Amino acid sequence: MKSAAFVRKPGSIRARKRARLAGRGTVRLASAAVVSGLLALGVVSGAGVAAADDSSPQHPGGATATLDGLDVHGGAVLHTKDAGGRSTDEQLDAGLFEMNVDGGGKLKTYCVDIDNPVQDEAKYVETPWAQTSLGANRDAGKILWILRHSYPQVDDLSALARSAHTGALTAQSAAAGTQVAIWRFSDGADVDATDPQAERLADWLTRHAGTVAEPRASLSLTPSAVSGQAGQPIGPVTVSTDADSVTVVPPADAAESGVRITDADGKPVTTARNGSKLYFEAPESTRPGAPDAGTAQMTVQATASVPVGRAFAGVNKSQTQILAGSSDSTVSATATGGWAPGGSAATLTAQKDCGKGGVDVTAANRGEGVFRFELGDEAETVAAGKAKTITVPVSEDQRYDFTVTGDHGFEQEFSGTLDCRTSSTTPQADQDVTSLDAASVGGPAGGDTTDLAGSGLAETGSSSATPMVAGVAIALVLIGGGVIFVLRTRRSASGAGE
After folding, report:
1. Which of 14, 100, 270, 324 is deepest in the core (most CB within 10 A)?
2. Helical spans, DSSP H, in 7-128
3. Which 8-state DSSP code applies to residue 443?
4. Segment (H or E) for 236
């Protein structure tokens, strides 16, 4: 049986209505250098107009998939109390979902988001725990323990039944019992399985669950954005994967542009492995008067089994899932490189900050001059060798719509929904936030400024770079994105950025 939602209860209908109403409210932000959304993107002065499409998710690394429906499941009962303290029982479907991986492969997942509905054929992306409700959940590691010690990772149901002293288990009762145990930790839910064997399994898993560390992404490139000068190696970008090898795909216009992907010695590469360091190499222009500025994108791809315990978040509002099993699946990652002959060369990234309830926008300036940008109604500057982070508040479940504007008519629009918690207060249906005033942009004096010397932020140019700290290049829709701004600006006489 396949189902568009795991619940058989009126509450799921109300949740769908709330999700639709929340979509009417948008947060719009015009800026010269805000990065967000679904695309790892390079930006150069004079770039044209582009738009991001929620239906075609892109992200720095891992698997993307489409929900196929509820696959193997049993029944459960959720015990709740209304505002007056009256107890109510709600019937649930509890079990395994199946997803079809883009490019090939199948995923089995459980829900970690009991109060939210699942959307039919929703798009999902592999996502770090920190960008979901699991990031603030002290019991997230226990959920991973359950996944590793129950169905379908333990597919010998007779052995599982003996260990848990449940009596005979079917695939349906094993899936239901596992899901019930997960909900107790993911949502703090008072929930029981309707099948006695499934309930015994849920109780056994709940009692014995230990804590296991989050698994790393199936494939990633760090950082997702680097910049430097034409004619010099730009990077490095480091490959992280459990696959034996990955295929390195050069920029689509490599034959025309002359941009190559190389190793540290400048040799072109077509394959890489875990730990490999890759560089962009952009030729200097041979045309008189032509600008030595531009961007390119590298892609790496592999076939791998996605690690059990990886979170999968909906591109649009749909309940968060956690991986219980994977076939060999197509995984990929992208990174963007930009170059210019001098002036201000900055990388900008945005990271959903569930703790602060918003989005952290970080500008890191590795160039020679001051980097200037606008965020909301505020003009910002970052000096050479400095980085600045500004938090843009976005309400939970709030639909946002960010527009990037820059020099020479550049405009880029991104949209999505902030989804950090398993339950939340939804904004009023008619709420429409169309601008952000200075007070609404977090951070004292326009944000926190960091000296890049010795920091973990992305290096640029040809120096031996320290990889960007985990999570810096994670974008606003629970997936990644980095933007490079390579601006041809005059050097500031003072060199000050604050």
Report:
1. 324
2. 10-22
3. S
4. strand 233-241
C-alpha count within 13 angstroms, C-beta hemisphere, residue 64: 21
The residue behind tokens 């963007």 is 336
**Amino acid (1-letter code) at residue 194:** T
Listed in sequence order, the DSSP H helices in 211-259 are 254-257
CA distance 457 to 462: 15
Instruction: Determine how many CB atoms are found less than 10 A away from the CB of residue 444.
Output: 6
DSSP codes of every residue in 408-428: GG-EEEEEEE----SS-PPPP
List the structure tokens of 274. Answer: 């875990």
Cβ-based neighbours of 419, under 8 Å, separated by 6 or more: 116, 132, 313, 314, 317, 320, 396, 397, 478
Q: What is the pTM of this model?
A: 0.72
Contact criterion met (CB below 8 Å) for 74 and 92 = no
Instruction: For residue 25, count other CB atoms closer than 10 A to its CB.
Output: 21
Mean pLDDT of 353-370: 72
- Bridge partners (DSSP) listed for residue 400: 416
More confident residue, 36 or 482: 482
CA distance from start to end of the chain: 60
The CA-CA-CA angle for residues 433, 439, 445, to 5°, reads 140
Count how many Cα atoms sit within 13 Å of the Cα of residue 48 in the half-sphere of its side chain. Answer: 1
Whole-number Å distance between alpha carbons of 181 and 188: 10
Tell me if 262 sits within 8 A of 281, measured CB to CB.
Answer: yes
Helix (H, G, I), strand (E, B) or coil at 329: strand
CA dist 54 → 22, 420, 497 (Å): 16, 18, 35
| % of the chain exceeding 90 in pLDDT | 42
User: Rounded to 5 degrees, what angle do the CA atoms 188, 189, 193 make?
Assistant: 135
Of 216, 9, 125, whose CA–CA distance to 481 is shortest?
Answer: 125
- What's the whole-number average pLDDT of the chain? 73
CA-CA distance, 415 to 153, in Å (whole number)? 36
- pLDDT tens readout for residues 249-259: 988 888 888 89
Which DSSP string do the residues of 99-153 spell out, in sequence order? EEETTS-EEEEEES-TTS---TT-EEEEE-GGGSGGGG-TTHHHHHHHHHHSTTT
Cα 301 to chain centroid distance, Å, stands at 18
- Asked if residue 412 lies in contact with residue 403, where contact means CB atoms within 8 angstroms, the answer is yes
Q: Is the pLDDT score of 336 beyond 50?
A: yes
Q: Is 343 helix (H, G, I), strand (E, B) or coil?
A: coil
